[in-house]
Every structure is written in structure tokens, then in C-alpha cells.
Amino acid sequence: MATPKQQQMLEQQQSPMQRVKNSGVMMMMSESPVNDEKEEEMAESALALFRAKEEEIERKKMEVRDRVQAYMGRVEEATRRLADIREELDDLVDPMRKDVAILRKRIDTINREMKPLGQTCQKKEKEYKEALEAFNDKNKEKAQLVSKLMELVSESEKLRMKKLEELSKNIETLH
């Protein structure tokens, strides 16, 4: 005889029409003496029906799982193809991107190297201007001194010439 739990599961799986028929059979069985063989056959039949339903559910579950796996495989393949397309698109946008990046890096390096050189250049330029100004000042001073020297030499020559002329006159007067 089926346990109450098995009967309940059997009733849930049967169609409404079968439930009505079985309830009548069950009532008749409970009212009349029950034949063990019939009861055993019904239990086996119910169990077989239950197993068949379980197998069908399991089979459908496997079919759905297989379809999901197949779909996931297609999705993964599509994802790979999209990644390849995206990579090609990125390369297409700037085919010389690596070369440009290398040149930019070199330009940045040179800019960093130029900064202290520019500062040194400005410092040297300032020193040059100061040295040039000092040179020009000394040159002016030299020109003034040379001019004064020329004046003195010229005056000195005049004085000496005058003195020589006087001496020469003195000698002539002596003669």
C-alpha cells in the first residue's frame, strides 16, 4: 500500500479526471476488502508514472541546459569577435599611435633637458651683458685716457718745441 505522502504526490501529478476516478477506486477499496495484488499494481503503476514524469523533467532540464550552454558558447564567440573588431578599430583610429607616443616621449625628455639649458643660457646672457657693459665702460675710459694722453703729448711737444726754439734763439744770439 502507498504511504500517504506517495498518494499525495500521485494525486498532484494526475489529471483532474484521473483524480476523480482514483478517489472512487480508493473509496471503494477502503470500503471493501482490498486485494493486495491490485494495490501493489496500482502502487507500482503510480511509482512508474512518477518516475516517468521525473525522467521527462530531467530530460527537459538537460535539453534546456544544453541550449543554454550552446547559447553561452555563441555569446563567448561573439564577445571574442567584438573584442577583435574593437582592437582593429582602435588600430584603425591611429595606426601610428606607437610612433606618436615614442616621439611625444622624446619631445618631453628634450623639453626637460632644455629647461636647465635655457636657465643656464639666460644666466650666461646676463653675465655676457654685464661683461659687455663693463668692457664698454673700460673702453670709454680708455678712450678718454688716450684722448687726454694725446692732449698731454701734444702740449708737451709744443712746450718742448717752444723750449727748443728758445734755446735755438739763445744759441743764435750767442753767435
TrEMBL record:
<dbReference type="GO" id="GO:0005794">
    <property type="term" value="C:Golgi apparatus"/>
</dbReference>
<protein>
    <recommendedName>
        <fullName>RAB6-interacting golgin</fullName>
    </recommendedName>
</protein>
<comment type="similarity">
    <text>Belongs to the GORAB family.</text>
</comment>
<keyword id="KW-0333">Golgi apparatus</keyword>
<dbReference type="Pfam" id="PF04949">
    <property type="entry name" value="Transcrip_act"/>
</dbReference>
<keyword id="KW-0963">Cytoplasm</keyword>
<keyword id="KW-0175">Coiled coil</keyword>
<dbReference type="InterPro" id="IPR007033">
    <property type="entry name" value="GORAB"/>
</dbReference>
